[in-house]
Amino acid sequence: MSELPFNSASYYHYLSEHKLMGCRNRTSGKFYLPPRPICTTSYSNDMDWEQVSGKGEIIAFTVITVAPTHMIEAGYSRDNPYCAAIVRLQEGPAISAQILGIDLSMPEEAIKIGTPVQATFIERGEGPAKRTYLAFEVV
Amino acid sequence: MAVKKLKRGVALVGAGMTSFGTFPGLNTRDLFVQAFQEMRASVDKGFDPKDIEALVIGNYSSTMFEGQNFMGPYVADAVGLTPIPASRVECACASSGLALRQAIMTIGSGLADVVLVGGLEKESDLPIARVTDVLATASDSVYENPAGFTFPGLYALLATAYMHRYGATPETFMKIAIKNHENGVLNPKAQFGARIADIMASKQKSAAKRGKPVPQWDSELDFLKDDQANPAIAWPMRLFDCSPVSDGAVALLLVAEEIASSFTDKPLHIIGYGQGSDVPTYERESLTSIKAARVAAEQAYATAGVKPQDIKVCEVHDCFTIAELIAIEDLGFFKPGEGHKAIAEGLTSRLGPRPINSSGGLKSKGHPVGATGAGQVVEVFKQMRGEAGPRQVPGDLNLGLTHNLGGSGMAAIVHIFERRQ
Q1: How far apart are CA A108 and CA A93, in angstroms?
Q2: Distance from CA of A95 to the nearest CA of B (A)
Q3: Which residues, 6+ apart, have CB-to-CB distance to B77 below 8 Å?
Q4: Residue burial A25-36, b: 16+ Cβ < 10 Å; e: rest
Q5: Which residues in chain B touch residue A113, judged by CB atoms under 8 angstroms apart?
Q6: Distance (Å) of CA B309 to CA B325, B348, B409, B417
Q7: What pLDDT digit, counting tens, does each position of B238-263 carry?
Q8: I need a surface site. Which of B272, B307, B379, B418 has the fewest CB within 10 A?
């Protein structure tokens, strides 16, 4: 099988297969998630795909009550807010994602920085508009 | 590394702005004409607009807000300046901070002696949900937006990281809002020139008028902690932590230092200038500081040859209250983690030892994104020349600073101004 290019389209393609994938540069050893076509340290494009464990911890978060259009379409609103966060993966990089499975009525009680989480995948949309989104669940 | 500086000095000799607010029926060109006329009137010895050799405007997205791209020549035409070079620069909320910087470089390089700087934005023609979507095109559409982030959400990330690391509470942010509203009361150009207490009183009055139960609050803080009165937008950022949707325009006149005295006896010399960039929030090493702002501030202090403690008056980019807290640390006024204590002690109030945002800031004055950076300069111009009226910061204000952020802090532009007599 020919290797997918190291870019966002491939990242989302892997997400649709429920795989969270980054890439490692053979020259510098640096690991990138999201993937990049070149290493921004060595400027070499000698990359390998690597799947991560999906384990990580919340390093910053928010509970969004005034949602953008695409999240309103997904069913979120003032009465049904959602948690969005940055998760630091065990493998090093951090990524933005929604956090599932927490009671959001008292954010300061329910969510703590340092909370361990595990990657999961959300499917939204129908037919050609169907897309997979990265999310995390509290473990 | 040696400090790289302009080849010749640049001075600010005129500054004008519209009120910030919502102006149905006026487009950005109409607003800019108003700002231009006020700028003309501010030039003490007068000048002929035909002497302007270049125009640089900052405009975030007339493209999406008004369906008008390519604003440079349209704005030049509106004030009768064609056929001079007319450029539009875009740097999200730092667009007119960048326009100022490009104008400084145009003069500093010797390509022109007299340059007009504009900042303009017309947001209020769109419904609020569309405005939010247009603003969100400045956050990362590939990795941040799919996670559901909004701009309040991105700054809320910085807020939760700061609270966790340094022990600040949402009350810290509320105190910033109270302070900026107090300053804005004294600014006739402010969009929300009312104290939080005035807003409480008007809510009570309107409830009574409608025969509804009259809400009671013990204090401004009590009001800001009320989920009904001050709902969360992106926790811990509530409604009163967010700058508003605004329209507005600003005009500044820059000239080569050697000809400044033919425009005014009170020019402000632009002695410090810095610009930085950074990665999206998820890639940052730290979420309790904005690296682009630290880099821009370091350059600005180095080019000016001054230190943070020398600055007398300062406008910072409080698009959200947390941004003001981080700004006063990034600018070196307070150590990392100490800013929230300074706010609690009232040190940043207009009459305190470190006055921040005497204009009311973006929070109270308004935030027409492409006009904001130049708007900050108008306040520093008035304050340093002793023309700020009832909100005049006391003392000999010989050094002023502006701090303008773009997006979630992926861009920052800092300028330092000096009055020599």
Answers
A1: 25
A2: 5
A3: none
A4: beeeebbbbbbb
A5: 160-161, 164
A6: 17, 13, 23, 14
A7: 999 999 999 999 999 999 999 999 99
A8: B307
B157 φ/ψ angles, rounded to the nearest 5 degrees:
-60, -45
Beta bridge pairs of residue A21? A51
Q: Which residues of B235-255 are buried (b: 16+ CB within 10 A; e: fewer)?
A: bbbbbbbbbbbbbbbbbbbbb
Contact flag A64-B160 (C-beta cutoff 8 Å)? no
Please report which confidence band the pLDDT of residue A22 belongs to, taking 50, 70 and 90 as the band edges. Answer: very high
Of B393, B369, B375, the residue nearest B383 (C-alpha):
B393
The number of C-beta contacts closer than 8 angstroms across A and B is 105
Q: How far is CA B417 from CA B25, B116, B303, in A?
A: 36, 17, 11
Rounded CA gap, B234 and B238, in Å?
7
Task: Tell me whether the omega of the peptide bond preceding residue B236 falls within 30 degrees of 0, making it cis.
Answer: yes
CATH architecture of A55-138: Beta Barrel (2.40)
Burial class (CB in 10 A: 0-12, 13-18, 19+), B58: buried
Residue A30 token pair: 């640096």
Alpha-carbon gap, residue B147 to A58, rounded angstroms: 14
Q: 């006020």: which residue's tokens?
A: B38
A97 touches B: beta carbon within 8 Å: yes
- Decide: B406 and B95 in contact? Cβ < 8 Å: yes
Residue ranges of the domains in chain A? 8-51, 55-138
Instruction: Kindly report the nearest CA distance between residue B222 and chain A, in angstroms.
Output: 18
Residue B11 pLDDT exceeds 70: yes
pLDDT tens profile B392-418: 999 999 999 999 999 999 999 999 999
Is the link from the previous residue into B49 a cis peptide, with omega within 30 of 0?
A: no
- Given a contact cutoff of 8 angstroms between Cβ atoms, the answer to whether B117 and B378 are in contact is no
The string of DSSP codes covering B81-100 is: -TTS-EEEE-BTBTHHHHHH
Alpha helix (H) residue ranges in B274-360: 291-304, 321-330, 339-344
How far apart are alpha carbons A12 and A21 in whole angstroms?
A: 9
Say how many C-beta atoms besides its own lie within 10 A of residue A60's C-beta: 28
Tell me the β-bridge partners of B269: B11, B418
> Is residue A105 very low, low, confident or very high in pLDDT (cuts 50, 70, 90)?
confident
Contacts of A120 in chain B (CB under 8 A): none
Residue B1 has pLDDT above 80, yes or no: no
Per the CB < 8 A criterion, the answer to whether A15 and A134 are in contact is: yes
User: Who contacts A85 (Cβ-Cβ below 8 Å, separation ≥6)?
Assistant: A58, A59, A60, A61, A62, A96, A97, A98, A99, A111, A136, B147, B157
DSSP per-residue letters across B63-83: HHHTS---HHHHHHHHTT-TT
Residues 132-151 of B with CB under 8 A from A: 132-133, 136, 140, 142-150
Residue with tokens 């020259």: A27
- What six digits make up the tokens of B343? 């706010």
CB distance B115 to B100 below 8 Å: no
